[in-house]
Amino acid sequence: MTADTPPLESPDRLRADMVATLIEQGSITSPEVEAAFVAVPREKFAPEAALSAVYSAQDVVVTKRDAAGKATSSVSAPWLQAEMLEAARLFRGAKVLEIGSGGYNAALIAEIVGEEGLVVTVDIDPFVIERAARFLAETGYPQVKVVLGDAEHAAEEHAPERGYDAILVTVGAWDCPWGHLLTQAGRMVIPLRFSTITRAFTFVRDGDRFVGLDPTVCGFVTIQGAGAYLDQEAALADGAVTLTIESGPRLDVAALEQALTGERAELWTGVTAAIGEPFDSMHLWIASVDDRFGMIWRDPDRGGDLVNLAMRWYCPVLISPHSFAYLTLREIPRGNDAEERRWEFGAIGHGRGRAELARRLHDHVLVWDREWRAHPGPDFTLHPADAAVPTPAVGRVFPKRHTQLVMAWM
Question: Per the UniProt record, which residue ranges are transmembrane (predicted)?
Answer without folding.
Answer: none
